[in-house]
Amino acid sequence: MPEGDAVWLTARRLHAALAGRVLTRSDFRVPRFATADLSGQTVTETVSRGKHLLTRTDAGITVHTHLRMDGSWRVRPAAERASGGHRIRLILANDAWQAVGYLLGVVEILATAAEQRAVGYLGPDLLGPDWDPAEAERRLRADPARPVGEALLDQRNLAGIGNVYKAETLFLRGVDPWRPVGEVADLAAMIGLAQRLLEANKERGGIITTGSTRRGEETWVYGRAGRPCRRCGTPVRSADQGRDPEGRITYWCPSCQS
Hints:
258 residues, four-stranded antiparallel sheet, 22% strand, elongated
């Protein structure tokens, strides 16, 4: 699933293509909104909220989308024919550009005034203008017995962290994913590190936590089960952690994260 930094970058690209321009076409290929037509409305902005995308128009309408596991947006010249028709869920186009949404997990139209119905439950956005680390810590500490690996993925606590950043943040802080939140020594430092990692990667289009851009060297533990820890040589472990929708395979070094 794309993480908060990838969604932030997607929002910026959609904003650059759509904002300030009149929609000449809207093609919703989901049953609930199949007859909707936003043509003639001017897009005012596209912003990210955690892993959610909000495209707003001057008519007080918001197109809310979420990439989930397999979704993506591609921006192409308006005159270009969009490929992969069976995977397309939404097209928003103006006289210059078309934004094509593929395999989007969520596609819906909301009144902009009612956006909170879709995203109001989210915790502070690590890449948002209103990022509030103190509030994120308060939400995490509200359930001190919960394993920290589960708590970090719960978007109600803080919005934008996905499985890669969870694993990498915990490794860099030397914290076992199953340690209860209440036993994490410096939760504020962990939250701050997670925010800095997303901030550092948000314009890259890829995740690098080791400082190395060489292929295969980008992460410390994520995706490296059975391979030697880059620090101590102990085999990296992996296991399922948590229940849906936050449940994921987690990766950790049993020596460095004791």
